[in-house]
Every structure is written in structure tokens, then in C-alpha cells.
Amino acid sequence: MAFSEQQYSEMSQELQQVKQEIGKFIVGQEESIQFTLYAILADGHALLEGLPGLGKTMLIRTISEVLDLSFSRIQFTPDLMPTDITGTNIIERTESGKQHFVFQEGPLFSQMVLADEINRATPKTQSALLEAMGEKTVTILGDTKKMAKPFFVLATQNPIEMEGTYPLPEAQMDRFLCKILVPYPTKKELMEIMKRTTGSLEVELDKVMNSENLVLAQQMVKEVLVADEMMEYAVNLVVATHPQGEFALSDVQRFVMYGSGPRGLQSIIKLAKARAVMQGRFHVSIADIKSVAKPALRHRMMLNYEGEAEGKSVDDLIDSILMSIQQGVGL
Fold first, then answer.
1. Does 170 map to a domain?
2. Separation between Cα atoms, residue 19 and residue 39, nearest integer Å
3. 219: in domain
4. Please, what is the average pLDDT of the chain?
5. Which of 213, 242, 265 is the last residue of a domain?
6. CA distances from 303 to 83, 115, 297, 299 (A)
7. Which residues does 244 contact at the CB level (< 8 Å), separation at least 6?
8. Does residue 175 carry a pLDDT above 60?
9. Do 144 and 230 belong together in one domain?
10. Domain boundary residue, one of 181, 213, 245
11. pLDDT by residue (tens digit) across 252-299?
12. Helices (H) and strands (E) in the chain — how many of each?
């Protein structure tokens, strides 16, 4: 192993400081903060879904500040064009009077990109993110340009039942390592939000990490050990999401159109590794896999017409699958 137990312990302490610093400004949202950090540690992208006004944008902006990453925000609207995201070639005149093309970078060329209300733009514009998210490159008129390092797309979306939203294409949903549901704050949290936002007190955030340390943390996540029985448990979990699979529950067969692909399995393992590092461990436990299953799989299981009509919840189906699987021995 490239890293020592002591290094994992020290990294865990640093990451806990990051979490505490975020908590100085963000009220509640414990799970949202945790899984956004897991996605960043696993070098992946996260999709946050919740009603307008719940602080999704502020959470992402706060994380970028605490991690000292370059930040840009793209407000997705129906008239947004792909070049508004990626950038475009413009004609520039030199001192000698000659003209030539110069690439003007779009907001996508930052370390942390907030795709705000991503499902309010048309599918054509949404798909402009696909290459950047999957390959970490952008191709403009045949010229391929690399993204910043590290590079994350943290997107927010409103529930698709709301007016003016376009469902994200399945291919793009699959690019997100996890989908995080942002809940409505409790009464106690609402009181605290009012105190922090309507008074004169201003919270100053410290930069706890930098991009260099973050890249090191990502490397440590990759080195986390996954035992064969943990891997088999995760595989059984993904196979059980397929309605035609050998482990499919009756409810999955009845209500699910299709289940998770290989990216779902990759997401479970990556997020489980990140959770282990946050807790100072260099091996994945069964609790890690169970904890990350819903954020990793909820956007990769598509309900059929019957499931939609009966108001079935993908999260409830995943809970049923978790209860049915026995560690290492399938169902």
C-alpha cells in the first residue's frame, strides 16, 4: 500500500475540518454535505435535487471556497446554447492587421463548475456537458482541450414535475457519480437559517484544503482496499436492480423498466472508498456499501409505467434489495 495508516488518519482529520468549516455557513444538510464531499474525493460529479430555495447553490459555492478551488456558475435556461458553456473561437485582429481565431474559454473551464438548475435547459445544451464529464476534455471544431485538474461538475435540478423542466437524458444522468436529495429543513434548522441570514453577522470561511491536497486525497481513495466479498456484495446489489436479473425481487420485476449498468457498480465502490477515507480507514466495509447504495443507484433505476402510476419510490426498492441480499452469497 502506497499510504500508511497514519496518513489515512491525518487525511481523515483534515477532511473532518473541511466538513466543520462548511457547517459554519451551511445549516443542516448533513447528508448533502457528506455525499457531495464523497463525490469530490472519488473524482466524480454529483447531482443535487431539491425544491428551489433550499440552499443547493450556496452549498456548492461554500464547498469550492473551503477547498480553495476556482469556481464558475452556469445558470441553465431554455435559451442557453452549448457554446455558452464550452466557449467558442472568436476572430481577433493582430497589431499588423491580420485576423486569426482565438479560443475564448467558457465557464466550463474551472475546477468546480456549478450547473445551476440543469434541467431547465434543452437536451441539446445539457448534452454539451457529456464529453467534459466523461472524458474531462472538450472538443471545439476538432480541437480537443483538457479541463482543469481537479475538475467537478456539481449540478442542481428541480423535481421534474415542476414547470419549465426537461428530464435529463439517461446517458447524462449516468455520468453523475451520485444523486443527492436535498431535504426541506427542520423547524430548528429554519430558526438557525433566519439568524444567520437576516442579521448583520457575516461568516468568514477559512480555506482548509487546496487543489494539491485534494488530488492527494483522491489518490488515497483509489488505494483503499476492497475485499472480494465486499466486491461480490456490491455486484449482487447492482444485478438485483435488473428486472430480468437472476436476483430480481418481485417488485423490481413488476415496477422497474431497467436497472443500473456497470457505472452504478463503479459509483458504489468509489463512494464507499471515499466514505472509508473520511472515517480514516483504508478498507471498505459492508456499512460503506450500504450507506452509498441509494445515492449511487437511485438515478440509474428507471420505473416503468406501472411503477410511475402507483407512485413507487426507487429508494424504497433499493431498501428492499439491501434487506434481501446476504453478504457474499447473493440472495
1. yes
2. 14
3. no
4. 84
5. 213
6. 34, 26, 13, 10
7. 253
8. yes
9. no
10. 213
11. 888 998 889 899 999 999 999 999 999 989 899 999 999 999 999 999
12. 15, 11
Q: Which of the two residues, 142 and 227, has the higher pLDDT score? A: 227
Same domain, 50 and 149: yes
Asked if 81 contacts 224 with a C-beta cutoff of 8 angstroms, the reply is no
Question: 266: domain range?
Answer: 224-326
Q: What cell numbers appear for 219 in the block?
A: 489518490
Name the nearest CA neighbour of 263 among 155, 153, 146, 133: 133
pLDDT of residue 291: 94
329 in Cβ contact with 293 (< 8 Å): no
Amino acid at the residue 6: Q
Residue 331 inside a domain? The answer is no
Return the minimum-mean-pLDDT range out of 51-60, 143-152, 209-218.
Answer: 51-60
Residue 133's nearest CA partner among 160, 156, 152 is 152
Q: What is the mean pLDDT of residues 193-206?
A: 74
d(CA 290, CA 322): 7
d(CA 307, CA 222): 37
CATH number of the domain at 275, please. Answer: 1.10.8.80
How far apart (Å, rounded) are the C-alpha atoms in residues 24 and 85?
32
C-alpha cell at 90: 472568436
Assigned C-alpha cell, 167: 428530464
Q: How far is CA 317 from CA 5, 39, 67, 251, in A?
A: 37, 23, 35, 7
pLDDT digits (tens, 9 = 90+) for 41-58: 999 999 988 877 777 888
> In the structure, what pLDDT confidence band is assigned to residue 1 with cuts at 50, 70 and 90?
low
